[in-house]
Amino acid sequence: MGEFKVHRVRFFDYMPSAIRALAFQPQREKIAVARTSGSVEIFNCADRFFQEKIIPGREQAATEALAWVGDRLFSAGLNGVISEYDLENQKVKYTIDAFGGPMWTIASNQQGTHLAVGCEDGTVKLFEVCEGKIQFEKNLAKQKGRILSLSWHPSGSRIVAGMMDMIRVFNTETGQSVHRLLVERGIGASRSVECVVWGVVYLSDGTIISGDSSGKVKIWDDLTGTLIKSHQVTKWDVLALSVSQDETSVVAGTSEGTVVQFQFLSVVLGQEDKEWVQTRIFKNHTHDVRAVLELGTAVVSGGMDTQFVVRPLLDKIEERGPECVLRKIQFPHRSLVSCAKKAGLLLFQYPGHLELWRLGESDGHGASGSVLPVKRKPEKLLHLKIKGEEHICCSAVSPCGEWIAYSTVASFRLYRLHCDNNNVSITKVSKLPKVLSSANQICFSSDSSKLFAASTCSSVHVVSLSQTVHKFVCTLKPKSGSVQAVHLLAASEDGKWLASANSDREVQIYNLTKMKLHSTVPVYNSGVTAMAIHPTTNNLFMVHADQQVFEYSIEEKKYTDWSRQVQRNGLHYLWLARDTPVTNVTFNPKNPTHIILHDAYMFCIIDQTLPLPDSCSQFYNQLTLRSLPEKDRTKHSHAFKMCKTFKELMFVELMEDQSLVAVERPLVEIAAQLPAPVRQKKFAT
Amino acid sequence: MVLHSIGGFLVHKMRDPVLDNTAWLKTYYYYYCYFLCRFLICGSGDSVKVFSTSTEECVHVLEGHTDQVTGVALNPANHLQVYSCSADGTVRLWDFIDGILIKTFIFGYPILSLYVSEKHAGNFQLLALHLPKVPDQEVEAKDMFAVLCDISPNPGSTAFGQGGEYIASALGLRLNVYFFRKQKTYRFSLKATDKKGAKNAFTCVACHPKDDCIATGHEDGKIRLWRNFNQKKEYTYSTQHWHHNAVSSLCFTPEGMHLLSGGVESVLVQWHCEEVNKKDFLPRLGGAISHIAVSSDGQMYCTSHSDNKINIIHCSFKLSAVIQGLVKGNIWTDLVIDSRTKALVMNGRPGHLQFYSLQQDKQLYSLDIVQQEYIYEEGLDQFEVMKAVFDVRGNWLATVEERGRDSDLEFALKLWGFNESAQSLELNTTITAAHQDRITSMCFSPSTETTMLVTAAKDGQFKVWLLGTDSETQKEQASWSCDFVGSYHGLQPTNCCFSSDGSLLAVSFEEVVTVWSSDTWGLLTTLCQPPGPIRELCFGRLSCSKYLACLHLAVTCFLFDKLLEHVFVFRPSEPRPLFTQKAVCEGKVQRCVFAPRAEPLDSCDERFQWLNRSRLYYLTEKMELLSFSTQTEDERILKSRKQLLVDDSVAVTPFYLLLGKHRRQQEEEDKLNFMTNQVSERTQHPQASVAVKEHVLFFFFLLLKIIVLKIVLFSFIQYGTSLEEEWRDTQSKLLEV
Q: For FRET with B56, which of A110, A676, B425, B703 sits at 20 to 30 Å CA-CA?
């Protein structure tokens, strides 16, 4: 496997923000996740919950709720505006002020014709969804107290609103309130505090289910407006509710970090009359669960502890497969770290600023696994705060370490770094070509002479960089005419090739000498999570969300023999069962047959000369191999060499001087920065 | 003569050992209870007992089974009848109001538990489960068919479901639900452990009486409520967790409003089925809860405990009655007789001494020695009473409590005085560091002038403690203080003993017996008795008080061969056993004691004369307290029981009384006839043992001494002057040999 000097980098203080809302798009099986930073992420349920798109947030966005209308995604927030997102270009399309003060909730009807928003001033506002815009239609009868949750009856004729101390049912035709359901407050000290109905669900049989701050899930009948049953689920708040498509299961997220499931079961087996019965409790969170989704086959939850948790419901899944694992998504599925291989610099991307660090040095030699003495400590060279409200969507540092580029939704900036001895200064490149208004992905060529910026409609702008003049060279466009944004770029070492991958799962290869499209890799039905071009053979190496690996020979425009062998043999089931995607691929120039890749919990070296593991061989065999004598090792070793020495990995790269950089972000450090969870009595305390 | 086993709730009758040596009965302390509002019915040993829930008295003893009663269940067709099943392979139907056996069903296989379903009326359904082949049989009248295989022998792990539609049974990690109508079994398995290290094995099962919901208890204290279990995949369960150790019993109330659970914590937990998070607790009930039962109207709950106790709890969660038998547990103290109450004193609840009346066969009271809250946790080292000694008049009790192993041993010597006005023992003095090391022996001086206690400990010293008013503190109440510390060549004292007048103290130091004057505390003489250290030491009584007996100079001793379980009764005058009894019980005899009778017995039979003034009680490994008694005595007990029967009968009409009397008379006549038969048989018995030569027997005796690992008992009670004369003769004889 080889020996590396490893820089264990732990000074990237990446802090994800809390999940505020979840929305499910059933036709395309996509989940939109809104975070408190205002960013919205799109996960694809069908593709192993791969994070396909990230719409960067902005200051004071305060998104509170999300709603899908067909393929269109809307959000409402405490800033009082409704936003529609441009999912192709990963930005906000437009915003419209609802003129009702801060908004707590947004809900769309099943017909996809209307949106309802709940406002601070106690109004429920209906908006008609039109082509390319939304149009205010009417206010429902104004109430005292804010509207915190909304749910449409599947027929669209009624809507239920959760408020302070009460639930109201409105007729959407007349706009009048039909029922007023009073929700009792908690007992004891919380009696003086208003009971907040955080979530309501309106079922097609007329049952209303509510979750409130007294910790109860209540089941109401809308015909009579009476309470049928009340379940005390927690001592704290029930914050979120979600019902499955077939209306047989409801999940509730609580402040204790639990998700409680209710099922519509017949009390006496074989009989028709059914009841809502509390069944399972899932405890995968340490903090408030602010949003839940019941997908039928899985329960998705997110909350203050920033984790996106997918808990499969094994009783609903027909066959056991990679979908049956509990997933906890902590980190974004794309790299927030870029690295200047030659200069030994690391660029960390935070939402509001960039940090440039110089790696430490050590000249010591030690045994395997030992800690080397540090000659020069790692040094923070630069803290670059961005202008404006928008958050950074992508950033890059050139391999020589001279250029830093970043882009927000609104602007693109390029900086030149001057580094003489200990004096670090940057100058902003002022005269940039006009086309570089914003970018979805930025990449530098290996000699740092060119800048590639991915833009709208999968196009890539090429700009040549020099000391004085920065010239726009051309725009590379795919032939497919895809409108999706590019999320990965990879330039070859010799400067001849550029590969781009977009959300339509297309991978284009451009010839940079001729400045035109060279070839298109056959479309595979899973998104590309990481790719890179081999420095010597110019093979494009791709890893997909379903853990498949492909190697594509650019020159011959076909998959390599090794890649076809991998497809023929099939990968080891333990490799396919890994629950986090590979986020970076890199190569070892000294050892051209080695490919280094990593996901959040391991890094792996694929040795193409060794045989592939078959299903009966031991996959994680590093320890076994070490115990064997030298002669037997070759017999037992296979192509995948896994290393789990490092904690949660965000980035792994091999530097010019053969040292490995591993950027770790231990989850305990993230957990330490979270606010204290609600107090819970534990046994024997 | 008849052997009695004590420690159920009433004296337990056993068959004559002379006639029938094969079937010895055991008293189990496991109670499978079933009860109505006014009566509690439970299996105890080989009988079924009926208790009144209000007075705690035993109303009836239903006898007839010849082996351990394993289950009782009310007849769903007639609530005045009860079924009981037993390991002898029979199921019996009783009228428990009158105490009449109605029917006996014979199956021929040992039956481990019994479940009755209401809906399968007419003839009851029965699930007979027996271990060797492990089939599970359902019986209608006489033909049976197997319902489920692989059934746990634990009766709590099988239960009938709502309306008798299905039966749920758990074994290990699997729950089986059998639907009678579809004749189909659904199996649900759990993983042995999950990531958090939970132990998922099932321990008990209960079915909701109205809904299709099965509650299961698990080894790690979780309770799962299963629903939708007629589906292979889409079954579902919710989990509740309060118990920190295995849930031992679960029970739904008849209306299904509450679920009761209990475990080793001895806390009864009431879960509200409507609101899952709400629960009520009733703590400090006694030993680990082994079984929970609810009365058919839901007004009363009852819990049976591992320490031989039944609590009757009102549905408002208030304790209403306690039925306490002989507390089962580890016994470290010798069996001691309190001369005041004539009660047997031994370890009871953890940290307590129990006073168990042998005459009334019930616990008088429990004295808290340790006076610390007992915490139910495995492996937790807690104070335990290791020794208890009464003085001759029963005015003083000395106890030793210990905690820890050799290195970190903590112990305290406590002295309890009898308070005449309160009529109870009160703590007088606590001596925390009486010795450097463990106390091995202690005894009170029998002298009437001084109240004196001698303790011998492993630190090589024996100490004399005197009761007296402390001159410095001027306290009104007299307290104990150390008077003298003695040692002998640094050897460890093993035993100590006062002569009957209290003038001499004998202390054995390994192989040497030292005799001290109690006036001057001067060493009078030493006696050496090789080979081997001295195990027991005792002065002779009355006229033979000049003799000192140690180990093999047994006076009237009972040797319990630890391997063979024989009882030997010796008379001081004769080297051969007076009485031998083979295989008195299963397992080893742990301890035994002579208890004086309230009134002496006149037995004509020479062989049982030694039983005239006292009774021998012995404790087996299984914590059964057994006793020998004669036939006549047995009759008396029987009579008193009948009396009780009449007194406590529910509806006593003159007609009934007449009938009852008539029946009793008849029974007694039968009994008499039976007895005469016995006697005639007995006389024909050849007396083979007498023919053996005396010296051979003596060697046998010596041999026994070596084989026998421990002579359990050495306390003895005089039998009459004639014995003492003989005793003197024996001494000389023994010395000659």
A: B425
Q: Residue A20: pLDDT band by 50, 70, 90 thresholds?
A: very high
Q: Do B360 and B324 meet the contact criterion of CB atoms below 8 Å apart?
A: no
> Are residues B230 and A315, on separate chains, in Cβ contact within 8 Å?
no
Interface of A with B in 182-211 (CB under 8 A): none
Q: Among residues 304-333 of chain A, which lie with CB inside 8 Å of chain B? A: 315-316
Cα–Cα distance for residue pair A573/B696, rounded to 1 Å:
80
Mutation to test the B interface, candidates A248, A260, A279, most B Cβ within 10 Å: A279
Intra-chain end-to-end CA distance of chain B, in Å: 34
Token pair of B253 as six digits: 């109330």
Dihedral of CA atoms B709, B711, B712, B716 in degrees, nearest 10, equals: 180
Give chain B's largest Cα–Cα span: 89
Which two tokens mark B46? 């080989």
Mean pLDDT over each residue of chain A, to the nearest integer: 88
Task: Please give the distance of CA B349 from its chain centroid, rounded to a whole number.
Answer: 12
CB contact under 8 A, B227 and A277: yes
Residues in chain A: 685
Give the three-class secondary structure for A314.
helix
Q: Is A645 on the interface with B (CB under 8 A)?
A: no
Give me the phi and psi of A639, to 5 degrees please. Answer: -65, -30
Candidates A216, A269, A319, partner chain B, best to mutate (most B CBs within 10 A): A269
Who contacts A27 (Cβ-Cβ below 8 Å, separation ≥6)? A70, A71
Helix (H, G, I), strand (E, B) or coil at A578: coil
> What phi and psi values does residue B606 have, to the nearest 5 degrees?
-65, -35
Cβ-based neighbour number of residue B282 at 10 Å: 19
- pLDDT of B141 over the 60 cut: no
Which pairing describes strands B184-189 and B504-509: parallel, antiparallel, or unpaired?
unpaired
Please name which of B232, B238, B212, B234 lies closest in space to residue B160, comparing C-alpha atoms: B212
To 10 degrees, the CA torsion angle through B280, B286, B292, B298?
A: -60
State the angle between helix axes of B654-683 and B631-648 in degrees (0 to 180), rounded to the nearest 10. Answer: 170
Q: Name the residue of chain A whose CA is nearest to B236's CA.
A: A279
Confidence (pTM): 0.75
Which two three-digit tokens encode residue A19? 């999940």
d(CA A382, CA A181): 58
Asked if the Cβ–Cβ distance from A231 to B275 is below 8 Å, we say: yes
Six-digit token pair at A623? 């320890």
The residues, ordered by sequence, that sit 6+ positions from B709 with a Cβ below 8 Å of its Cβ are: B562
Q: What pLDDT, on a 0 to 100 scale, did the predictor assign at position B364? A: 82
Q: CB count, 10 Å around CB of A490?
A: 22
Chain B residues with CB-CB distance to A280 below 8 A? 236-239
Please give the structure tokens belonging to residue A500: 């781009």
Cα separation, A270 vs B179, in Å, equals 12
The closest alpha carbon to A386, from A82, A52, A56, A63, belongs to A56
H/E stretch holding A540 reads strand A539-544
The reply to whether A279 touches chain B by the CB within 8 Å rule is yes
State in Å, rounded, how far the first CA of chain A is from the last one: 49
Q: Which residue has the tokens 């809250």?
A: B373
Q: Is the pLDDT of residue A309 over 80?
A: yes
pLDDT in tens, B487-528: 888 888 888 888 877 788 888 887 788 888 888 888 888 877
The answer to whether the Cβ–Cβ distance between B227 and A683 falls below 8 Å is no
Place of tokens 């050799």: B406
pLDDT band at B220 (very low <50, low <70, confident <90, very high): confident
3-class state of residue A207 by DSSP = strand
Helix (H) or strand (E) holding B49: strand B47-52
Q: Which of B179, B228, B237, B255 to mutate to test the interface with A (most CBs of A within 10 A)?
A: B228
Tell me if B458 sits within 8 A of B438, measured CB to CB. Answer: yes
